[in-house]
Amino acid sequence: QKEVEQNSGPLSVPEGAIASLNCTYSDRGSQSFFWYRQYSGKSPELIMSIYSNGDKEDGRFTAQLNKASQYVSLLIRDSQPSDSATYLCAVRVDYKLSFGAGTTVTVRA
Amino acid sequence: DAEITQSPRHKITETGRQVTLACHQTWNHNNMFWYRQDLGHGLRLIHYSYGVQDTNKGEVSDGYSVSRSNTEDLPLTLESAASSQTSVYFCASSDRNTGELFFGEGSRLTVL
Questions:
Q1: pLDDT tens digits for A15-57?
Q2: CA within 20 to 30 Å of B40's CA: A30, A36, A100, A105, which one?
Q3: Pick from B40, B42, B100: which is nearest to A88 by CB?
Q4: Is the C-alpha dihedral spanning B88, B93, B99, B103 positive or negative?
């Protein structure tokens, strides 16, 4: 079993819709959780971090964490063409991050 | 602004040659990491360091080595390049408290 698994995608959503991305992890000792966005040919950039159960909102992005279910999600509201990218879920154990394979999102106009 | 710089950004080499990828960060982070990214595998950890003179193996360390002589630099060396090491390599550093990882621009390596 992989440490971090994401819904494989690709995910295609119309402009203005909500994109929902899911991630599960295997290590119950995981301490912190992150979402990175990666445009094609570019490096990953951090868009959200979440450390405790519940929801965390930042602009059009909402991260949700449920440690009991070992589940992290990211919602992108009012999706824009500029949101088209691969989204990577990352989980921290000790000082290291393990990444999921990523979900590619395409926002169609 | 603090940043991480990698060099070279693109390199083509031959099987069996030694290759070193440089990584320099100005975040003053103690923690530094090297990942490789391949289609279908995502980001996989090669080596990491929690401070000067500290180095540790990640999940795909065979054929790679690192050294940490100062806070700013973590060069990655491929002792004898193999075609399986053709990949995009990312250096990253993190804040010890938050764990937030910041990436360099990446180095695309092709081994022929």
A1: 999 999 999 999 988 889 999 999 999 999 999 999 999 999 9
A2: A30
A3: B42
A4: negative
Type of residue at B36? R
pLDDT at A23: 96
- Cβ distance of B41 and A101 shorter than 8 Å: yes
Which of B16, B12, B11, B10 lies closest to B78, judged by CA?
Answer: B16
Region of residue A54 (phi > 0: left; psi between -120 and 50: alpha; otherwise: beta): left
Chain B residues touching residue A49 (CB < 8 angstroms): 98-100
Contacts of A58 in chain B (CB under 8 A): none
Residue from B33, B31, B55 nearest B46 by CA: B33
Please check whether residue A32 is in contact with residue A79, taking contact to mean a CB–CB distance below 8 angstroms. Answer: no
The secondary element (H helix, E strand) that includes residue A71 is strand A71-76
Q: What is the pairing mode between strands B4-7 and A96-99?
A: unpaired
